[in-house]
Amino acid sequence: MQNSATPTHCPYCALQCGMNLTPVPDGGVEVTERADFPVNRGALCGKGRTAPAVLSSSVRLTSPLVRSGGTLVPATWDEALDRIAGELLRTRTEHGPDACGVFGGGGLTNEKAYTLGKFARVVLGTSQIDYNGRFCMSSAAAGGIKAFGLDRGLPFPLEDIPRTGCVILVGSNPAETMPPSLRFFTELKENGGTLIVVDPRRTKTADQADLHLMPRPGTDLALALGLLHLIVAEGRVDEAYVAERTAGWEDARAAAMAHWPEYVERITGVPVPQLREAVRMFCEPEAAMVLTARGPEQQSKGTDTVGAWINLCLATGRAGRPLSGYGCLTGQGNGQGGREHGQKADQLPGYRKLDDPAARRHVAEVWGVDPDSLPGPGRSAYELLDALGTDIKSLLLMGSNPVVSAPAAAHIEERIKSLDFLAVCDVVLSETAALADVVLPVTQWAEETGTTTSLEGRVLLRRQAVTAPEGVRSDLDVLHELADRLGVEKGFPTDPEEVFEELRRASAGGAADYSGITYRRLAEENGVFWPCPTPEAGEAEHPGTPRLFLDRFATADGRARFVPVSHRASAEEPDDEYPVLLTTGRVVAQYQSGAQTRRVDELNAAAPGPFVELHPRLAARLGAAEGDPVAVVSRRGRAVAPARITTGIRPDTVFMPFHWPGEGRANTLTNPALDPTSRMPEFKTCAVRVETVES
Ligand SMILES: Nc1nc2c(c(=O)[nH]1)N[C@H]1C(S)=C(S)[C@@H](COP(=O)(O)OP(=O)(O)OC[C@H]3O[C@@H](n4cnc5c(=O)[nH]c(N)nc54)[C@H](O)[C@@H]3O)O[C@H]1N2
Ligand SMILES: Nc1nc2c(c(=O)[nH]1)N[C@H]1C(S)=C(S)[C@@H](COP(=O)(O)OP(=O)(O)OC[C@H]3O[C@@H](n4cnc5c(=O)[nH]c(N)nc54)[C@H](O)[C@@H]3O)O[C@H]1N2
Ligand code: SF4
Ligand SMILES: [Mo]
Fold first, then answer.
1. Is 48 touching ligand 3 by the criterion CB < 6 Å?
2. 3-state SS string for 296-327
3. pTM of structure
4. Do 146 and 561 meet the contact criterion of CB atoms below 8 Å apart?
């Protein structure tokens, strides 16, 4: 398209590293350094560096596919779109609008996520829409809303990290999941600050820590309560701050006092002297932060766990003050924006609530529909997938690969197969797309323009840099064409900037207010932090809000809320039959379900397949040697992968990455027990037994 370098951002994780895309003579495009973006200053991980390989991959989809006689065969766009519209219409007529389901993704741009939510509510009239972000940061979002009245993953920019005094990083492995961000923690230490890592494995991140706490998976709630107990017992509570800026301390304090350090040591396995050392490191400096990621969040008590870590910040006056605070490291490329503009079951754009009459009126007016025509809240992601084939007969899926990434994946695969009709938009034939009745090949990242909102709450412009291959259309095109065929001719533009202009109006006055942000500003500035409201007449442009809560929290009275929480067991604890704990997560060279990164040779060479990480003592008990295939068996099923033996994991725990389908699919094993508030599944702990396998 252009001959010079196009400044843009990575397609993968929420760090949204800046990069330049430069055309190469043979027609491809190459990633070159973009040093002006302050988050990564030119640095990239291997996934970002090799991302162009997916643009030109030979397995890239370039024609719609329609199932005929049991196999997917190429079809024209009109045939494919007519088929989808016809099936959705038939489902709606025969079974009602809620029999049509929609499933989105946190990797979709703001424009796509917004349009998908609008399509579900306005065109299909269904309440049954949710997205994979429910599997990602929903517990942190729920915890943040309870305590602060607002959910923005990080309430401060990453650049604040090196200048604080201490960071507790809970269940987060940025050395593998966001490598360029490790610099902020290294600089923290160079500046004399300290890093505490809480992880049942000695990860590459934990290797950098001044103190590494290794709790049993699923016990972070008890750990945080134990630390709060010590803070009270040692007289380290910031009483003036608690009185001035918070509410609910007495109940939270009473709950924490029931968690004696010795009791917490028994639950977590973390020795009392380490608990005391963590309290000292956290409380002594002027400022400190707690950052959580999927470790403590992907639990059936994730919301309470996040609440307990926030309580720790509130009791010590470490929230809503410079260089202090609680934050969640959001995961997907648009994990933040994707949760703000209406692809979530209970939500309207601007982080508005679907059950709030004023919010319904505002958004209905922007959409030009009757507020009463908008459906109410629907089911959460796992519950939606679990209802496929029963209550939900047809599904439109965009930006997720649940056959690999959903908990209890064998069960979910069966539910997907039992649908009357499945349509998938993707760039490759993912394991889920392979089960579809219609697959639509869509443009990706560098072939289209759109905005994402990074883990910092920074809205960014991802620019088109190359022309899409022949035969491929954008997700916005697809939704426009389907809306048209279903009788809604207006309101589904295909130009991303036009969508963004509408999103601005829809979000105006909401919690995530984007109304002061324009494509022009995004092109000129290195992103704009929300909230960014429209300026009053005659006033200058709103600068955006890099730091939240410095004056007040986003609650009615401006005070943060303590939540009284107590430890409880995981949904599945080990027993005689399933004596070991399984936890799951990521490796640096693969991304999510692997649909994209498993197509890149360099990444496959670095991370060729699944494995089971286990401690030498457990390996010896089994008689398993390094590389031997071992079977991991849970109440949901059985997975087999080579043993990787390491002293860097608790002896009572095994770890599997979840990036692969087939025999080594970790999610065959995982437990879909849900958090009562966030509806997050318990990806991070279930009970298993480990067996050797005849090879
Ligand atoms: N390479 C790579 N990078 C990615 C992704 C990817 O797939 N691959 N995905 C992106 C996305 S969407 C996300 S959400 C982020 C996720 O980023 P992270 O949260 O950093 O990734 P995970 O590996 O899921 O989990 C982090 C750590 O939690 C630990 N853990 C497991 N159980 C527990 C527990 O009970 N308590 C505690 N405290 N820790 C526990 C694991 O050992 C692991 O080291 O990464 C993003 N970046
Ligand atoms: N056991 C276990 N399971 C987990 C987790 C865990 O830690 N442990 N983590 C969970 C988390 S945090 C997450 S975020 C999920 C993620 O898991 P998934 O939801 O499966 O995420 P991806 O693999 O990124 O799937 C995105 C799909 O959309 C396609 N795609 C990419 N860009 C676009 C686009 O612009 N448009 C369209 N239409 N398609 C696109 C990709 O090719 C891919 O097939 O997995 C969850 N599952
Ligand atoms: S850290 Fe995340 S955003 Fe940066 S290059 Fe890697 S995958 Fe892309
Ligand atoms: Mo995620």
1. yes
2. HHCCCCHHHHHHHHHHHHHHCCCCCCCCCEEE
3. 0.98
4. yes
